[in-house]
Write a structure and sequence with these properties.
With about 425 residues, this protein is an all-alpha fold. The protein has one domain. It is built from 15 helices and 2 strands. Strands 1-2 form a two-stranded antiparallel sheet. Helix 5 crosses helix 7. The radius of gyration is 22 Å and the shape is globular. The chain starts with a helix and ends in a 9-residue tail after the last strand. The N terminus and C terminus are likely disordered.
Length: about 425
């Protein structure tokens, strides 16, 4: 028994710990002034855990293999374009291989409890960050050191992922399952705190992507409820309407009020609404010009940043500039395959973890269309790897051992 634990469970725990640390590093650096050495710990832990898991368990599902093959073809296309054009930025190539690595490591974490642990780590640190933001911006009192050197957007995206994760669990609980009252109320409290912190965050992209992901999580939960219960009855229909319509409208209104009435965020958002900030639109216009010069295979890895002097703040345009329509098509098929596989499984076997991962993965995916460098989107590809891992878990292992029980048409969210 002990040997089995050491050879199978321990590598997975090490892998989960490394991935969790990778995902929350910006928050750790901002709140606790952690140095760059934290990347080394996270990378070594995740890599060693992943290697041990692969060697000892060899768990790569067919869906994961297909997604890895698509990602590999995308990388091969970008490299071929670079060789064809004689343009290859070595740093971006290394970063691209790193993205492939974190996606592979995410695919290997096929343990629902440990995936829950990774998400719980993000939620916990996002809640602490949100509390600090509330105290700092509203009460002019900081609970602890806060270092703004790390991008507020990075921290905001963790808050947005946490909000989407919690909204998924709460919506699922309200419609399909039940938690103990104390647990349910704790999740509601965390959700309110994190949404408040997200509204106070300076990052508009995180706010928008979080809002869209939260809304979609409510809608998706209301749709999966039908596949779970077949018919909901009058009480269930009322709840489904609330989750699908009233809840996202309420969250949207709350976030809008926070983002537009607090001086810290109102000015920047107001300028965006009035069209006072145009550099990104100019970048995107220039991108189409560069794409038209080499539409099929692009200009090679790193070419877009050479053209603009920065990244174009849209990964689809960046991939098209570097690898052409061929590379972009592969990326769309890659992402579409992951979400299609996950959604099919979700409707076949409704599960709060699946809802949480779909909603959480949408946050960086949506955000990547307005900001960020494709070659450094570790958050996006780690979340996609976890989504691929969940999609390949046997549904029999998704029985939550008492975490969530079936909900009849006449019962409320509490036992």
């Amino acid at each position: 028994m002990n040997t089995s634990f050491q050879t199978s469970t321990l590598p997975l725990i090490l892998l989960a710990g490394g991935l969790a640390t990778l995902l929350v590093l910006p928050v750790l650096r901002a709140m606790f002034d952690a140095g760059w050495s934290a990347w080394i710990f996270a990378g070594v832990a995740a890599a060693s855990g992943g290697a041990s898991t692969f060697l000892l368990r060899q768990k790569l599902s067919r869906a994961s293999f297909i997604s890895l093959a698509l990602f590999g073809l995308l990388i091969a296309t970008l490299i071929f374009s670079s060789l064809l054009n004689g343009t290859l930025v070595s740093n971006d190539l290394v970063n691209l291989l790193l993205l492939f690595s974190v996606f592979l490591l995410g695919c290997l974490l096929r343990d629902p409890k440990l995936i829950w642990g990774v998400l719980a780590t993000i939620v916990a640190l996002s809640a602490i960050l949100s509390v600090n933001l509330i105290f700092t911006t509203q009460l002019d009192f900081s609970l602890y050191h806060y270092n703004p050197r790390d991008n507020y957007l990075s921290n905001g995206m963790r808050q947005a992922i946490s909000a989407a994760t919690l909204s998924s669990i709460l919506a699922y609980t309200f419609l399909i399952g039940t938690y103990r009252q104390a647990t349910f109320l704790l999740l509601v409290f965390l959700f309110v705190i994190i949404v408040a912190g997200l509204g106070l965050n300076y990052g508009r992209g995180a706010l928008l992507s979080g809002l869209i992901a939260v809304t979609l999580s409510f809608v998706l939960a209301s749709l999966t409820a039908t596949s779970k219960t077949q018919h909901l009855g009058h009480f269930g229909a009322v709840k489904k309407t609330f989750i699908g319509l009233l809840a996202p409208i309420s969250v949207s209104a709350a976030l809008y009020l926070l983002a537009t009435t607090v001086p810290r965020t109102a000015g920047r958002i107001q300028r965006a609404l009035e069209g006072g900030e145009t550099p990104r639109f100019q970048l995107w216009t220039d991108s189409f010009t560069h794409i038209s010069q080499a539409p099929f295979l692009g200009h090679g890895i790193g070419a877009s940043k050479t053209f603009h002097g920065t990244y174009p703040h849209n990964i689809l345009l960046q991939i098209t500039e570097d690898g052409g329509i061929v590379a972009t098509s592969l990326f769309i098929v890659f992402v579409g395959f992951l979400f299609l596989t996950a959604t099919k499984k979700l409707f076949a076997s409704p599960d709060p973890l699946g809802l949480a991962l779909i909603a959480g993965s949408l946050v960086p995916l949506i955000n990547s269309q307005t900001t960020g460098d494709f070659y450094t989107w570790i958050l996006l590809f780690t979340m996609l790897g976890l989504l691929a891992a969940w999609s390949s878990i046997n549904p029999n292992k998704m029985q939550h051992r008492g975490m969530c029980q079936p909900l009849s048409d006449t019962r409320g969210p509490f036992p």
